[in-house]
Design goal:
The protein is mainly β. About 5% of the residues lie in helices and about 25% in strands.
Length: about 150
């Protein structure tokens, strides 16, 4: 059973694994823009969760990266493992009345509304969700730019 919830503006995935409740960040640090996160991810026998789009493995006990882009050598070279933050793992406390998850020590950036990968590098400098400016031949980039949403005269 899995449930994605928002706690203090952070997406958190709660799940039951081997007779224990875990809470981790809702989206894989390896994923790019507009992903579904870990909601349908596979678990391994050695306490890891697999990123659905990259195959990268993260420990659900401490968040460490166990396997980084195992099926894509190009992305592995472009985004070295040592530049990526480990997956966030949050402490969980179960009482008779409630399930409590502590996200107060989280290092994730401000609340997000998209599901992209921007802000997941150690330097916070990746830009997966930034839309590039569009220019057409004959346009002066210092004065104008095109838009995919602009209505052009007929």
């Amino acid at each position: 059973v899995r449930k994605e919830v928002e706690i203090d503006g952070k997406s958190v995935l709660l799940f039951w694994y081997r007779n224990q409740i875990y809470a981790i960040q809702g989206r894989s640090p390896a994923e790019g823009a507009y992903t579904e996160g870990f909601i349908k991810a596979k678990f391994t026998q050695d306490y890891c969760i697999e990123c659905p789009s990259t195959g990268s493995l993260f420990s659900i006990t401490d968040g460490s990266i166990k396997s980084w882009y195992p099926n894509n050598a190009v992305l592995r070279m472009l985004t070295p493992q040592d530049t990526i933050k480990p997956m966030e793992v949050y402490p969980v406390k179960l009482t008779q009345e409630a399930l409590m998850v502590d996200v107060s020590q989280s290092s994730l950036s401000a609340p997000r509304t998209d599901r992209g990968g921007a802000g997941t590098s150690l330097e916070n400098n990746n830009v997966f969700t930034v839309q590039p400016n569009v220019y057409f031949e004959g346009m002066d980039p210092s004065k104008e730019q095109a838009s995919m949403y602009q209505d052009w005269p007929a």
